[in-house]
Amino acid sequence: MASVAPDKILEIKQLISNHLSQSDINSALRDVLSDYSQRHPNSGPISRDHLISELKNRGVVDSMMQNIQFGNQQPSPRQRQSLPMTSKPTVSTVDTDQLVSVPLEQVNFDANRRHLYLQFLNGKAFTDYLNEPQSENYPGYSSSSLASSFSISILFRNQRFRTRPFACAGEPYINQGFLLELHKDKQQGEYGAMADTQTLLSICDRIHIVLTRKDTLGEIHLVSSHFLEWRQVLCAQASKTNRILELNGIGAENKLPVGVINVCLQLIPPLNESVSNDILAAQLDLEHTKSTERERLFLIYAKQWWKEFLEIREEHRTRLVKIFGQDENGVNHPVFTFVQPLRSGRLLDTPREAARFVSLIGYDRHSVVGNTDRTEMWTHAHAFLARNCGDCENHAVLLCSLLLGFGLDAYVCIGTKGKNQIHSWVVTIGADDVFFWESLNGNRYQHTSIDPDDPPLDKLSLNNIRHPYKTIGCLFNDKSFYANIQPTCNVDACVFRLTDQSKWKAMSVDAIASINTPGLVLTAPVTPHLMSNTLDPVALSNDIEKQIRALIIQHRKDLGYTTQFDDHLSYLLSPALSSYELERVTGLSVGNEEFQEAVRRAVPNGHAFKGFPIQFVHKNARKAFVFSLRNNLCEEIVCCHGDQVRLAVRVRVFTYPENAIATWMMFACRYKSVGSTK
């Protein structure tokens, strides 16, 4: 029998690991174990040989082997049909279950257009992950038993891709590539024609590479954010070159390396004659000089503007007027450059649905080791979406961009809320009304200005002020920046007539445009388009509900209680969950009467009913169950015991762009009331 090279063994192991982390093998394993325990309740754990035999009998092993491609093996016709249309990379999904990276020789592309093939080969020196722990196979967790995984997201000229998850290790093996179009800008006359050398030299867009890590509990962490200058490939022989990318950390660790990744860049078709290094260096130096000069001129203007702002009133020194924000790499940008009008196509239909979507992206306050105070980090939108989590600034910027795309006059506000906590939210200013939008929960509040010279408000009027905001220092969007120069920065007394120069000090529109026009500043943030959700909400709802039922049964068993579910009552909970989500999107409550009538008819006379709804933004069943039990009512329902107790549970997952989800659950029970004789 021929021996297999060590590097080939590593490749095979990685291919199998990648497939196991993406497939539904975990569901198959749970089904086998569940069936075995029911058929052999007293025989102990299932043996490995018996488990493999069961998986073979169910076709799981054959299905897995058919889907794994080794080396240069050609895909079958059916598999070839499932490969992504690489000639249209902008429609590629970010979902790792469907994204397929294939060798260049297997890729179909339009030979009349210029492309860049970017291949990630392997990584080295990821020393922080040499001893990455394995995940525990706890019941109720949908994550696999593999170690935590890395994933790379890339953005280039509004084309987005993501690699399959690969092992989180000191020297990860990647070997995945993507085909990027180099002439997508119709306004510059590039679309539909082969990009020549001069056109390629003028494309100053960099490739944004974001490395994330998914831990064993399903949490996603931002590891590194890197901007790759790709035009060195124009100088390479045969238009192909290898590069070593040194990736640094984020935030306060942006100067510390986290590892290196080997990549290969290849121009397709290659240039007839490569560009000299001197010409490329001159082009890069010219772009850098022009960009730096624009930034220098704006900085001079901003300093003068700030000086004038402070001269108006001494108290202005303490107001939250923020002109610059620092990104994840420690680079300062004018805050208005983070905002760009964003049209969501057919993914989001209304501004309120956009607010709901943004609120479902995870919230996480950035912190620094050794510092308990809040630290701002204005993460690039691509990194924010790749991680699917961020701080209030990231949420507010994204929501403002979406509302601008819907044609509203929207601005990001910077001020305080609650106990003087610095916060960012969104305001839309209409002809007659002003509304505040809270990007972290999707709530919308109407603002009514109060004259500070009026008599103090009574208790009823104070209760009508429902928003949580206290002060406002400034507001901005992609075209304007205003500082609050009213006598008080209190939100309730604030007048939002932005054209009134006695109340708001505006920055020059021309000064903002000079630095916030695409292509003028090399380091300016870029807002990517949204990707559709590729999760199956029905299958996901069924899977989570099945896990929740198993957790309830186990929890009650530990308490010495038996468990019986009322499937009909469980089904009747669905309309309530749909109504709750609809209310979050529209602000309107519908269907409550029908739900109450259905429950009344389903609960026998002399029985009581209890229900507890709750919503999460993740799909971790055990995490949701443990959190729900902290509520006294939920604990009463799950632990209910007595005469004729029947439990009910229903899970409903609602999907939004970027694989954002709203996971609604309702725990319920019915039982015979004490003292009832019926």
What does this structure look like?
Residues 535-672 form the Centrosomal protein of 76 kDa C-terminal domain. Residues 70-92 are annotated as: Disordered. Residues 110-272 form the CEP76 C2 domain. Keywords: Cytoplasm, Cytoskeleton. Centrosomal protein involved in regulation of centriole duplication. Required to limit centriole duplication to once per cell cycle by preventing centriole reduplication. This protein is an alpha+beta fold and 678 residues long. The protein has 3 domains: 115-132 and 145-184 and 194-275, Immunoglobulin-like (Sandwich), CATH 2.60.40; 285-516, C8orf32 fold (Roll), CATH 3.10.620; 537-672, Pathogenesis-related Protein p14a, CATH 3.40.33.10. It has 18 helices and 23 strands. The strands form 6 sheets. A 7-stranded antiparallel β-sheet has the order 17-16-15-14-18-19-20, with helices on one face. A hairpin with a 2-residue loop joins strand 2 and strand 3 (159-162). Helix 8 runs antiparallel to helix 10 (392-405). The longest helix is centred in the middle third of the chain and has 36 residues, at 277-312.
Secondary structure layout plus pairing:
Layout: H1 6-22, H2 25-39, H3 48-57, H4 60-67, H5 77-81, E1 115-124, E2 149-156, E3 159-162, E4 166-167, E5 173-181, H6 197-202, E6 207-214, E7 220-228, E8 240-248, E9 257-268, H7 277-312, E10 324-326, E11 332-334, H8 351-359, E12 362-363, H9 381-387, E13 389-390, H10 392-405, E14 410-417, E15 421-429, E16 434-437, E17 444-447, H11 459-464, E18 469-476, E19 481-484, E20 504-506, H12 509-515, H13 537-558, H14 567-572, H15 574-586, H16 592-602, E21 607-616, H17 621-628, H18 632-638, E22 646-656, E23 660-672
Helix pairs in contact: 7-12, 8-10
